[in-house]
Amino acid sequence: SCIMNRNHLCSNHPFVSSIVSSNSGSSIIPSSLKTLKLDGYLSSDNINHAANDFGNIYHHLPSAILHPKSVSDIASVIKHIFDMGSTSGLTVAARGHGHSLQGQAQAYKGVVINMESLHQEMHFHTGEFPYVDVWAGELWINILHESLKHGLAPKSWTDYLHLTVGGTLSNAGISGQAFRHGPQINNVYQLEVVTGKGELITCSEKQNADLFYGVLGGLGQFGIITRARISLEPAPRMVKWIRVLYSDFSIFTEDQEYLISSQDTFDYIEGFVIINRTGLLNNWRFSFNPKDPLQASHFNSDGKTLFCLEIAKYFNPDETDIVNQKIDMLLSELGYIQSTLFLSEVSYVEFLDRVHISGLKLREKGLWEVPHPWLNLLVPKSKIHNFAKVVFGNILTDSSTGPILIYPANKSKWNNRTSMVTPDEDVFYQVAFLSSAMPSSTGTDGLAYILAQNERILEFCEAANLGVKQYLPHYCTQEAWRTHFGTQWDVFVRRKSTYDPLAILAPGQQIFHKAS
Ligand code: FAD
């Protein structure tokens, strides 16, 4: 049902045809499934929310939602659907917190599993290599709060913590700690997975390693993650949170690359682009409470494009003097505009949960539930200047629709055995265009305009052969997916036929299609 327009636009794209699919009231859930004995329940009522996500662009109505109360509920339902064979056409999607952008957690006429309905206690293991065992539907913010009670915390984060473990581990989980610790998928010791055949399998680097690495970054294609063992470290109490501005892109990237190349550096390194404007949408992720660094995003850029380096150093209160010296030393090596140093001191929780607070403000103004045509790219270091020149210089003439993040990561910290694909260079940049579209606007802040702009960026990358990979990838033809995975495509297909041979799982990714 997904005809290619260009590589990245589907026929079920809003401007090609309506993407709202409904069941016309008739459920295709077979009665045998309805009578399965479950600890939780399967329901065809109140299913509308499962046809929406943060992207708010794709809407596919399922037939039913499973509210599991045990792992065996998930295994039983999938096993039953598997045993029905390919003719049933039924698919299954795990839904974490529904923060996908293009319907990835939806299942048209299928079963959506509400992963958040199963709550299980977290189990902490302290000692030399501390970890926590969590349910995959757990939000990272809850893991943070619980871990802190043990003086511990996960090492690698996302910028926003109201996402589930299963959702981010199916992608990568990237933030300003990834240069040092790798993404979240590199900080997991063990998973428990229900495959597309309904088997419950424990996997790790040592046990069922093929499934373990397949599922990490596997876009939900090989199994439903039910539990994860997350690696922890001693948690710092406080954070020095700093922003400095650059007008020269080369100096900005040189400094970023220098900082991520060193062991003795900041604990968090990100950055963003300021294209001649300020405003709520542009600032929402950056609007943090205390005094100073906020000013960085209000900086009057006089029509110029500025680049903001955002860095943080963790510390405990008894280390204040040492940390101040360290920061002064690191900053003295950087080439930012000297008058633009913005620094504040916040608690570790405040720092990690920074985006949530700004999100709440947007919610109050009704600006959270708008369409979000986001585009996330991984750009090889050798191409980042060409990319920036054309994209920030020509394609985007103002950035009024949302923040644009840009920061580098070290490929050596990304385990290349996972399903996640990254550019073929030692250092690559994550560039995130986090746009919000104004409902019913036909102007430059409307959905059609922003999608067309994203398309121009992708077309440029393709034409200039930049070797860019999409993060949170979205394609709707197998040909485009094959190109995305490149040399890893054969392994991906082989894993699919091993663990989900009927293509029951995560149909919203539009990689494989179940016969019906
Ligand atoms: P969902 O949207 O519910 O699911 C995502 C995909 O994973 C679907 O295909 C779903 O079927 C599958 N899935 C969900 N749970 C499981 C499971 N248990 N087992 C198997 N498959 C499963 N990403 C980053 O890396 N860094 C960021 O800083 C970042 N910030 C974000 C900020 C916001 C405001 C938003 C909306 C997204 C952000 N993301 C970020 C992207 C985010 O990581 C992904 O969208 C992620 O998929 C959302 O998690 P979720 O729990 O809502 O998953």
TrEMBL record:
EC number: 1.5.99.12
Name recorded for this polypeptide: cytokinin dehydrogenase
Gene Ontology annotations of biological process type: cytokinin metabolic process
Record has Metal-binding as a keyword: no
Cited InterPro entries: Cytok_DH_C_sf (IPR016170), Cytokinin_DH_FAD/cytokin-bd (IPR015345), FAD-bd_PCMH (IPR016166), FAD-bd_PCMH-like_sf (IPR036318), FAD-bd_PCMH_sub1 (IPR016167), FAD-bd_PCMH_sub2 (IPR016169), FAD-linked_Oxase-like_C (IPR016164), FAD-linked_Oxidoreductases_BP (IPR050432)
Species name: Actinidia chinensis var. chinensis (Chinese soft-hair kiwi)
Required co-factors: FAD
GO molecular function term, any single one: FAD binding
Domain of life: Eukaryota
Keywords: FAD, Flavoprotein, Glycoprotein, Oxidoreductase, Signal
Limits of the FAD-binding PCMH-type domain: 58-235
Family stated for the protein in its record: Belongs to the oxygen-dependent FAD-linked oxidoreductase family.
